[in-house]
Design brief:
Elements (H helix, E strand, L loop, with lengths): L3 H4 L1 H11 L9 E5 L5 H8 L3 E5 L14 H6 L5 E4 L8 H5 L7 E4 L20 H4 L11 H18 L4 H26 L8 E4 L5 H7 L2 E4 L11 H13 L4 E3 L7 H10 L2 E2 L16 H16 L2
Parallel strand pairs: 1-2, 1-3, 3-4, 5-6, 5-7, 7-8
Helix pairs in contact: 3-7, 3-8, 7-8, 8-12
């Protein structure tokens, strides 16, 4: 007896042709981010070929964050883990010991040109751990650096998924164009402000890359213990710095207690500017980099432009 396939081969071929697509599913590259500033660029560069899992919530304190067992669980199945780098994440060695052989940590900021901290200003770093390295880890406060980040991420995606490398590089190029446009917009917004007015006083040393790119003199005020009470000596030193530098406004940081800065404005008579996002972890409408960067520029210009 002949088989059904032998007697009706055209029906078998048609059935295979019809059903095959339902058994072949395109696999997306699984990526996790451990810094909120990387979420948007990771998605933009990956497009529909990448699925991004943000592990760190918007608004988290990046200088004191350390992955919990629940966070480690979220990393299971991811191939690439994107982190800020430049010493920001002091838990990386411990994290690596919890990963499997198929996972790669990409320190996005590692090859982006670094700004070193003057030892005299180390007390103004975010915390003692990051002051030790003498490198400012806040590289993302610069559209030019965020454009570099897009290309670095595209390279990491391309290595993990070479079949889609052209897409990743095209998307990174589009991201670079957006960052170029953002930089031009910022320069235009700031252009009407003379250099004598470009004095940026913030709670801790986090805007160095922004200051260099747009010609500001950075004046950190609060220092290491910005979440604790200040001694009379520290207060006196901050007041002297404000007066010596003829500071006209101080900018509190989103997520940081501004009580001490309010005290400074009361003592010196200068303005308390609007909150700015310095750690790349803005909340609500300021979670995406472009939104937080535009907000920062507009807030700074509004307070300093006379």
């Amino acid at each position: 007896m002949t088989s059904f396939i032998t007697r009706f081969p055209h029906l078998f071929i048609a059935a295979v042709t019809f059903t095959a697509p339902f058994h072949v599913q395109a696999q997306t590259l699984q990526v996790a981010t451990l810094h909120p500033v990387l979420n948007d660029v990771a998605v933009q560069v990956g497009g529909d070929k990448v699925e991004v899992t943000p592990v760190v919530a918007a608004g988290a304190d990046m200088h004191h964050f350390s992955p919990t067992p629940g966070d480690i669980k979220k990393l299971a199945g991811t191939k690439i883990i994107l982190v800020g780098g430049k010493g920001l994440e002091n838990y990386l060695d411990k994290l690596r010991s919890n990963l499997n052989g198929g996972q790669t940590i990409v320190e996005v900021g590692r090859t982006i040109p670094s700004l070193k901290i003057d030892p005299a200003n180390a007390m103004f770093m975010c915390c003692p751990e990051h002051a030790k390295g003498a490198i400012d880890p806040h590289w993302w406060n610069s559209p030019a650096n965020m454009a570099r980040a897009g290309r670095i991420i595209a390279d990491a995606y391309s290595e993990a998924d070479p079949a889609n490398k052209d897409l990743y590089r095209t998307n990174a190029s589009a991201w670079t164009n957006r960052m170029d446009a953002l930089e031009k917009w910022a320069k235009k917004e700031i252009s009407g402000m003379p250099s004598s007015q470009r004095k940026l006083a913030t709670a801790h040393l986090a805007m160095s890359y922004f200051a260099k790119e747009f010609g500001f003199k950075l004046i950190p005020i609060q220092g290491l213990n910005h979440n604790t009470s200040v001694t009379p000596q520290e207060l006196a030193g901050a007041i002297k710095s404000i007066r010596d530098n003829k500071v006209t406004a101080i900018f509190p940081e989103q997520g940081v207690n501004a009580k001490y800065l309010r005290q400074l404005t009361s003592e010196t008579g200068i303005k308390l500017g609007g909150e700015i996002v310095v750690d790349g972890n803005g909340t609500k409408d300021l979670a995406a980099f472009e939104a937080s960067f535009r907000h920062n520029v507009q807030t700074i210009v509004a307070a300093l432009k006379q």
